[in-house]
Amino acid sequence: MRRRFSVSLGDPFLDYLLGGAARGYLIIVAGNPGTGKTIFSAQCAYRNILRGLKAAYISLAEPREVFLRCMEGLGMKFKRLEEKGLFKFLDLASPTDPSFMDRMLEVSLKEVLDFKADVLVVDSLSALLQLTEREKARSLVHNLFTRVIRAGGVTTVAVVEVPRGEKRIGLGVEEFIADMVFFLVRREIEARLGRQLEVVKARGVEVKYPRMLYTLHGGFKTIPPFSFKPPRYVEPFKPIEDFPNAYSTGVSDLDAMLGGYPKRGVVHLEIGENVEVSMYHLFAATPLVNFMVKGRGVLLFPTTGVDAGIVHRAGRSYGLADESLRKCVRVVQLGPPSPGMEDWVVEVKGASFKEDYKQWLTSLRTLQEVTGSKEVAVFIGADSVYHQYGKDCMHRFLSLEALRTRMEGGLLLIATKPGLESRAVKAVSNVADVHLKLVRRRGALLIYGLKPRTELHAVSVDVSQGYPIPKLTPMV
Fold first, then answer.
1. Cα(331)–Cα(308) distance, rounded to whole angstroms?
2. What are the tens digits of pLDDT across the range 194-211?
3. Can you identify the CATH homologous superfamily of domain 246-474?
């Protein structure tokens, strides 16, 4: 069972994971340049002030005005809190003489104690040690630890700079006396910028997730392992308006990222390892549902392991009535339909691609006639076609559908899953106007664009409207 301490770490998931920090804790935030250590530490101070505590900030990295301006841009209004007497900024960014620094530090620590700060940030401890004679460095850390942190009960967040390519933290003494140590690093994920936090040390806590991704979008935010609970009550999906030359993806954040899916276009959704059905369905279902609620047709040849029953449950999760499914949806599958689904499930034998494609086109024409629109959204699981008919027929099927879509209008969405040979995946990508890929890293679900190229976005789910909608957070 996690303990619950009185001091927040500044991030909801870290607080959930570790239980926060106790009064008098020393927290080391270490990492290479540009990893967000200052943002992490400042946010820790800011969030605790909002919770009713007082915080002080000793800066050797940047002057007061620069700090306040940068944090204001991230939504942290320290100047307002300073005016209310809840925050004190101590500027030690200028001194370079070691003897002068000793005196300044002595005065600053006294100010922190007189201010009765609950939280202290030292940014950075590395700079402080560099400006102090080496033989005094250890005693300085010890003095900070005994006088301010332990005796004063001030929870202290100390920033430590680590040169690129190294993981050793400062003099080494900080790691031993610290109660918590976090190490931040930039790392490449799918040839794009990624960031990872490692919980190196958390005194008395069994850490379930010692490594996790994080972003600096709008502040410091860890990315928890992906999960979501369905809404308690299902509401009908609210349609999203299309663009003049593109269909909405059904996801506002994805529309903002891509500008929608091009009309008469082909979209390739590549599914990475360990991405579960419920995860990729968030992105496969939303454009199709957005088509349906506007009275347009949807034709599916599902991926391996997905049948009309799963399609039916997915539709119901977006508040679609059975009448809408019967009118606007056709699922082409191997095997007979389940009872009650005969009107919208088309059985194919799988022996002859030519014969089955005729049935496919018949289903398509029926949808166009019933809905009164040639604009049909087609979803094809390339792995199902590949395993049933072989590589050549898969290429032929996708090529025919791509050509038909470009001539008649509508949208073609093709999904590829792990196990499909790389040349087949490449062939799908070659015909696509948009190529998205879903991957999992450290339990988090990420999406990014190869065509057009985008950076990584972390995926969470919003169910506040009564149905699941992906929310995207840029990984910056």
1. 6
2. 999 999 999 999 999 999
3. P-loop containing nucleotide triphosphate hydrolases (3.40.50.300)
